Amino acid sequence: MKSTLRIKKINGIEYWYEDIPYYDKEKKQIRHKSKYVGRNINGKPVRVRDALNSSDEISSDNIASDEISSPSSKPINAYNYGEFLPLQKIIDELKIEEFLGDLFNEKDRNMILAMVLNRVIRPTAMYNLKTWYENSALSLQWPELPLKSQNISNLLAKIGDSDIPSMFMSKILRSLGTKRTLMYDLTSFSSHSQLINLLEYGYSRDDSNLPQVNYSMIVDKEKGIPVMYDIYPGSIVDVTTLKNTIKKIEAYGMENYTLVMDRGFFSKGNIEELVHEKIPFIMPATMTLKSVKELMSSAQKDVESPEYLHKFNKKPIFVKPVTLEQKEFKINGYCFYDPKRELDEKKAFYSRLYDVKEKLEETAIPGWRNAAEVFKERAREMASFYVEKDR
Q: Tens of pLDDT along 195-205?
């Protein structure tokens, strides 16, 4: 059985292949396999690399794709690319690269963009950033960025000691024409740094021995994207601390804003301050006020009425408008009831109750210890849900 040559066209380029017939003993039939021979150049199969290493003449048009374009070749390098496309589109639309270019030289600007893209795509420790960068298409787009830990630290220190963040936020706000915003009070973050004067000690969710800093994020209400941030020392629970941020917002020409705060801000004094200053706010209530307890008790009587039924994320939820009245203020709010959440919380409670019961049954009480004390020690806050059986 003789082999034959044939031409196969791939992506508009012609290649020669050798068709080799052979006998398949298992299937007892003649089969064929193909072997790549070379590019079709002037009617002859030519391996381009071989031609380049010899004295044969070959035009640049013919070797444009080389054997890298052929199915039998292997790429020398592969770079992460596709994951950058949506983010680079956002950067272009918001003119972020242009604004950074007004504040930094080209190399520093590209270093900042590389760090930002890494935070979004694949967060890594700063000492690993260079390795990530070298395996991405960024190393081709912005070659030879000095992304060593020391260089990154120096650049971040330069930014932190300047008014560059404020200048950048000003450019973004003017470009977007932001008028309506939501101001979110974010969770406090702890830090091991000893160099930041802004850090203070206070309530920390991570480690009570670490200093912390609190952030506020200002979001464009129409576009749903962050446009500004502000930093406060420690964990704040006093709305007067937020007034400086409000002044900054107003200085940028934004008059329509709403504060979105967590339940830590809920207090009679804070509400009085917000109402007096006519600052719109959204804040979950707590049971610290007697009037809140009474309001919740009253709302529960008919909150499941069909007139209060709505859908949120395709799930039913009951939302009833309520009014919280005090001698000093009167504010409107909502009481909501989520049937699914109630069911989930019941399941979690009963599961925990059963686990505690099993733990108590397996507990061996030493003769020298009081059984009631051991029970309270093991059951803790669940102790009130158990009763002693008569013997």
A: 455 444 455 45
Cα-based distances in Å from 238 to 88, 213, 269, 326, 356: 39, 15, 9, 20, 39
173 falls within a domain: no
Residues in Cβ contact with 247 at an 8 Å cutoff, skipping those fewer than 6 apart: none
The single-letter DSSP state of residue 147 is: -
Q: DSSP letter for 383, please.
A: G
What amino acid occupies position 211?
P
Determine whether 110 is exposed, middle or buried from the number of CB atoms within 10 Å of its CB (0-12, 13-18, 19+): buried
User: At 164, which amino acid appears?
Assistant: I
d(CA 325, CA 303): 19
Beta-bridge partners for 282: 260
Look at residue 191 and tell me whether its pLDDT is greater than 80.
no
- Is residue 323 within 8 A of residue 314, CB to CB? The reply is no
Count of CB atoms situated within 10 Å of the CB of 64 = 10
Provide the domain limits for residue 131: 82-160
Q: What residue ranges in 212-276 does DSSP mark as E strands?
A: 212-220, 226-233, 256-260
Average pLDDT, the chain: 81
Q: Rounded to whole angstroms, how far apart are CA atoms 65 and 153?
A: 42
**Interatomic CA distance for residues 169 and 113, integer angstroms:** 16
Do 301 and 376 have their domain in common?
no
**Model pLDDT for residues 101-143, shown as the tens digit of each residue:** 999 999 999 999 999 999 999 998 888 999 999 999 899 889 8
* Sign of the dihedral through C-alpha 129, 131, 132, 135: positive
Q: How large is the average pLDDT for residues 243-261? A: 84
In terms of pLDDT, which residue wins out, 156 or 193?
156
Element (H, E) at 93: helix 85-93
Percentage of residues of the chain with pLDDT beyond 70: 83
Q: Please report the pLDDT score of residue 304 as a whole number.
A: 92
Residues 250 and 122 in one domain: no
Residues 220 and 323 in one domain: yes
